[in-house]
Design brief:
By secondary structure, this protein is mainly beta. The protein has three domains: 22-295, Methylamine Dehydrogenase, Chain H, CATH 2.130.10; 305-581, YVTN repeat-like/Quinoprotein amine dehydrogenase (Methylamine Dehydrogenase, Chain H, 7 Propeller); 591-672, Macroglobulin (MG2) domain (Immunoglobulin-like). Helices cover 1% and strands 49% of the residues. It has a four-stranded antiparallel beta sheet with strand order 2-56-55-54. The protein has a four-stranded antiparallel beta sheet with strand order 3-4-5-6, with no helix packed on it.
């Protein structure tokens, strides 16, 4: 067995995301701050320490705009406008005329409420949203990005320019003189000036848009998402963080370089506290005028991570149907890469020839030439779009898919299929080994010594499907289904089982780092070996009860991607010092331990001892004696073993697990409580 020494540095810590939602708008009302996201409405009353969902009554979870109008807070959603008078405890429809319309912006002009929509123009309401009237005369587009009011004037920002109305929207006139970029995303009124944020910088006007001048010095022509005003300081949320100006936009300075890689989509001011909402990176708070920002996202939902990859200091996270995120600081900040690959589940990631490559669940290959800022699909010849794994060998990209292994020599632009020795099938893992060796694992394992042209079967000694592959100091490692980890020191000609700690486990992730090998067992437990797999030590203490989908080593950190709690991080130095092994004697008798925890939901761990090599089975039965799960089946050497049973797919109740090893038989009871 093993004794664990834990110190503060030896614990796992959750990184700040990535989150499954994008923050689209923020609103301050007294001590309350409202966040509108792609995943619903949230509220904090403690300056962002915790956020709670406030969705009761909302029929659409995409909140794109807020406005404070009298005693009510109004929300523009993907299904019209809603209002609340009790800080979001209950929402009601603000009239039915806008139901079904995506409302992108709200503005208050005296006693009139104005709403801009994504495809249906501008509407105004003189009675707090009870009735709405379309006001589109003079608008040359029905797609509204932003609305703003100054004195008695209403401004509308669109993808074809800026418009002005001096009669509450009854008629509109285009105001583009000097506006060299016509995609207007945001407005800010400051004194007699109005600023327009565009896809390529900021413009200022002192005559209600009659003429615009460039006000972008220091910004670098970045896209502007939002504005906020704090005393005499103007803040701009951009694709590259938060910028500030104290001279009405003549010059801008970056507020804090820690947010420079973030896409800041919303800013709000509460007294001396600033809030910044981002696309996929959560919410940040500053109490020193934006000089320093701290994460403030507790309570916001995290995304499900499917894959992690590190390339020259850039951490890339592929998610379950939530797109791709990147981090340049080991997870302290995450940036959502929204362009081109937003909806696919990303199973694997790689880098080759200046490209980042993403293998998806049903969309084939996506490729980025700008560190993930934008992605383009490319899949000529890739007849199976379900990519499960990648490896790179001297300029050759190899993809394991749900139907075959594919090869590409042009960075994924076109693909071919090996024709000799490799049968069609499910290939969950591919691995390259210098100089021209490839391995492909699925129902069995195959090897090619000529860069994929010819393959031979190398599965002797492995009688179970291969889930993952890795290369370490001792050779080639394979993670298997229900049989732990095997290693080959002769390029796959023969295989040897590694330490008994994982002998009954399904190992779906293996990652090598210098002299260390990391493994994910049964999707929930992380193990480490310092001695080429002879012994595996647990590293799971402090991790949440979520499935672990991926591991990656970034700089001096081990990163773990979870199925619903974002990315977690642990220092490598603490890992190396954190485990103290003791000698593990061979058991002297058969023994079946009580499962722990018990009762449990959804998983529990069962431990047993085998004193000598035996044919072993460990089976779970229900109260009627019907087999529910076969956890172990096969010949096992002497040792102490443990296996996890995940009961997600069975109902609550009493179950029995029985160990049969040679002539030894023992049965114990356990309880699933959901």
């Amino acid at each position: 067995m093993h004794t664990f020494l834990y110190a503060q540095l030896a614990q796992w810590a959750q990184t700040n995301g990535p989150y499954s939602i994008n923050v689209q708008c923020l609103l301050v009302r007294g001590i309350n701050v409202f966040a509108g996201t792609t995943g619903g409405a949230f509220l904090t009353s403690d300056y962002g320490t915790t956020w709670i969902p406030i969705d009761s009554g909302l029929t659409n979870n995409s909140i794109q705009a807020y406005a404070l109008f009298g005693p009510a807070v109004f929300a523009g959603t993907g299904d019209g406008v809603f209002q609340t008078t009790d800080n979001g405890s209950h929402w009601t429809t603000a009239g039915t005329a806008l139901s079904g319309l995506r409302v992108t912006s709200l503005a208050i002009l005296g006693k009139t409420l104005a709403a801009g929509t994504a495809a249906d123009g501008v509407f105004i309401s003189p009675d707090s949203g009870q009735s709405w009237t379309p006001v589109d005369s003079g608008l040359t587009t029905s797609s509204i990005n932003a609305l703003s009011a100054l004195d008695t004037v209403l401004f509308a920002g669109t993808h074809v320019g800026a418009f002005i109305s001096t009669n509450k929207g009854t008629s509109w006139a285009k105001i583009d003189s000097g506006l060299t970029n016509t995609n207007v995303n945001a407005f800010l009124s400051s004194g007699t000036n109005i600023l327009a944020g565009t896809n390529n910088g900021i413009f200022s006007s002192s005559n209600y848009g009659g003429g615009w001048i460039w006000a972008d010095s220091g910004l670098g022509n970045t896209a502007i998402n939002t504005f906020a005003l704090m005393g005499s300081t103007i803040l701009a949320g951009t694709f590259g963080g938060v910028y500030t100006t104290t001279n009405s936009g003549i010059s801008w300075t970056v507020a804090d370089t820690s947010l420079k890689s973030s896409n800041v989509s919303a800013i709000a001011v509460s007294g001396s506290t600033l809030f910044a909402g981002t696309m996929g990176g959560g919410i940040y708070v500053s109490t020193d005028n934006g000089a320093d920002w701290s994460p403030a996202s507790r309570g916001l939902p995290y995304t499900k991570i499917r894959s992690l990859f590190v390339n020259s200091g850039l951490v890339v996270a592929g998610t379950d149907s939530q797109g791709i995120f990147t981090s340049t600081d080991n997870g302290t900040h995450w940036k959502f890469t929204a362009s081109g690959a937003t909806n696919f589940t990303v199973n694997c990631l790689a880098a080759l020839g200046g490209y980042l490559l993403a293998g998806t669940h049903s969309g084939g290959l996506y490729r980025s030439s700008n560190n993930g800022a934008s992605w383009q699909q490319t899949a000529i010849g890739l007849i199976n779009p379900w990519i499960l794994s990648f490896t790179v060998l001297e300029g050759l990209l190899v993809a394991g898919t749900g139907g075959q292994v594919f090869l590409s020599s042009d960075y994924g632009s076109s693909w071919s299929i090996p024709t000799t020795g490799l049968p069609g099938g499910y290939y969950s893992a591919v691995l390259s080994s210098w100089p021209t060796i490839l391995y492909a694992g699925g129902l069995s394992i195959y090897r090619s010594t000529d860069a994929g042209s010819h393959w031979t079967w190398q599965g002797s000694g492995i009688g179970t499907p291969v889930l993952c592959l890795a290369e370490g100091y001792a050779g080639i490692y394979v993670g298997t289904r229900s049989a732990g980890v095997y290693v080959s020191a002769d390029s796959g000609k023969s295989w040897t089982a590694t330490g008994t700690e994982l002998a009954f486990s399904s190992v779906g992730v293996l990652v090598d780092s210098d002299s260390l090998m990391f493994a994910v067992a049964d999707s929930q437990h992380i193990f480490m070996s310092k001695n080429n797999g002879a012994r595996w030590d647990s590293l799971s203490q402090g991790l949440p009860n979520y499935k672990i989908s991926s591991l990656a080593v970034a700089d001096t950190n081990l990163l773990a991607g979870t199925s619903g709690d974002g990315v977690w991080r642990r220092g490598m130095s603490s890992i190396v010092l954190g485990v103290k092994p003791t000698k593990q004697p061979v058991p002297t008798a058969f023994r079946l331990e009580q499962n722990y925890p018990n009762p449990f939901n959804p998983s529990t761990r069962i431990t047993c001892s085998i004193p000598h090599t035996s044919d072993v089975s460990l089976i779970v039965y229900d109260l009627l004696g019907r087999e529910v799960a076969r956890l172990v089946q096969g010949t096992k050497p002497p040792g102490d073993y443990s296996v996890t049973w995940n009961a997600t797919n069975v109902p609550s109740g009493v179950y029995y697990y029985r160990l049969v090893a040679g002539n030894f038989v023992e049965t114990k009871k356990m309880v699933v409580m959901k």
